Amino acid sequence: MKIISWNRDRLDELVKLWNKELVSDFPMREELFMQNSFNDLNVLYESSFIALDREDKVIGFIVAKRWKEEVDVKLDQKRGWIQVLLVDSDHRGKGIGTMLLKRTEADLKENGIEVMQLAGDPFHYFSGIPDQYKKVQKWAVKNGYTKKLDTYDLINHLDKKYFLPDNDSITFSLLTKNEKDELISFLEKSFPGRWVYEAIKYFEMNGDGREFVILKKKGKIIGFCRINDSNSPSIAQNVYWSPLFKHETGGIGPLGIDEKEQKQGYGLAIVQAAMAYLAERNIKTIIIDWTILLEFYEKLDFKVWKTYGIYLKDL
User: Fold this and answer.
1) Are 249 and 275 in contact (CB under 8 A)?
2) In the predicted model, is pLDDT for residue 72 greater than 90?
3) What whole-number distance in Å separates Cα of residue 65 and Cα of residue 46?
4) What is the per-residue pLDDT across 43-70, written as a single tens digit (0 to 9) for each?
5) Which helix (H) or strand (E) holds 255?
6) Do residues 172 and 273 touch, judged by C-beta distance below 8 A?
7) For residue 8, what pLDDT band results from cuts at 50, 70 and 90?
8) Same fold across 2-125 and 155-307
9) Helix, strand, or coil here: 149?
10) Which of 68, 76, 111, 263 is the most exposed place for a label (fewest CB within 10 A)?
């Protein structure tokens, strides 16, 4: 076996290995893999590796990240992420995965990382380890990781029609380009951190606003909800696995309401508005990713689709 550095020339082989092992649950596309595992500026090429067999065939890989973006958004500088670690099932039980993990952890610790997280990275695939992979979760614990909580992806097949909420004191609309700065300012004030970063990246990718439902009161933004579909400027997290469906799928989230305007039903209302806008685009199934708010979304008929465990380790 040989270990080589992260190399986009191996894209085709990496995606083939992913689909050999995971296609029934998480079908991968080359476009998505390139977006998340090569083009993301937070990928650590020097700490991500590919395992090859004697015939120079890819039999495993690991992708590591740390926050490297030069934007005015602060995420944890001491946290490192393993975006994905995958070993060909024909080569498991030989210590390849553990060796890749230990090598990456040592690299990141040497470069100041104090906490490792499995998944949940910028441009992540998963919020944590998928719950159906119990052996992987046990392996993580064996290697020093502790489960912190469960998160969920939810699904609604739109078996009934959802309408824009009717409330004379507020208005719902899709964001226009000239409202970009107002949205960013709202997010910086009300939800600093990752959601600001994701909005900035959206506009860097030439987003025109159609992916944001905004809630206004007296002409001022007091809430937002991101919506995604196959025409969005990037493949968003809640539509990653849309190839599982023959029909058009859409995604909802993140979303938030100004703290001063909460507890008035606006959160549920903006989700309903988002569902109505997606239905107008002939979306048949809507996914909400990475949430713990099961009772909240059940009010609009969302059910648990996938479950993940978030695992952390102090280095």
Assistant:
1) no
2) no
3) 10
4) 999 999 999 999 999 999 999 999 998 7
5) strand 249-257
6) yes
7) very high
8) yes
9) strand
10) 263
> Could you count the other beta carbons within 10 Å of the beta carbon of residue 95?
11
Q: Which amino acid, 302?
A: F
Are 225 and 273 contacting, i.e. CB atoms less than 8 angstroms apart? yes
In the CATH scheme, what architecture does the domain 2-125 have? 3-Layer(aba) Sandwich (3.40)
Element (H, E) at 4: strand 2-5
| Three-state DSSP class for residue 69 | coil
Residue 75, pLDDT above cutoff 80: no
Report helix, strand or coil for 132: coil
Asked if 250 and 229 touch (Cβ cutoff 8 Å), the reply is yes
Structure tokens at 103: 């090598």
Q: Determine contact, residues 60/50, Cβ cutoff 8 Å.
A: yes
User: Cβ neighbours of residue 104 under 8 Å, at least 6 residues apart?
Assistant: 47, 48, 49, 62, 64, 82
- Residue 149's pLDDT band (cuts 50, 70, 90): very high
Checking DSSP bridges between strand 249-257 and strand 285-291, what pairing results, if any? parallel
Q: Using the Cα atoms of residue 93, residue 96, residue 99 and residue 100 in order, give the sign of their dihedral.
A: negative
**Range from 71-75, 83-87, 191-195 carrying the lowest mean pLDDT:** 71-75
Cα–Cα dist 238/251, whole Å: 5
The CATH code of domain 155-307 reads 3.40.630.30
Helix, strand, coil shares of the chain, percent, nearest 5, are 35, 30, 35
Q: Where are the domains of the chain?
A: 2-125, 155-307
**Cα–Cα dist 21/224, whole Å:** 37
Contact at 8 Å (CB) between 306 and 272?
Answer: no
> How many whole angstroms separate alpha carbon 144 and alpha carbon 116?
10
Closest among 195, 141, 202, 153 to 177, alpha carbons compared: 202
- pLDDT at res. 71: 76
Closest alpha carbon to 174 in 225, 237, 249 = 225
Q: Is 225 left (phi over 0), alpha (psi -120 to 50) or beta?
A: beta
25-29, 69-73, 189-193, range with the lowest pLDDT: 69-73
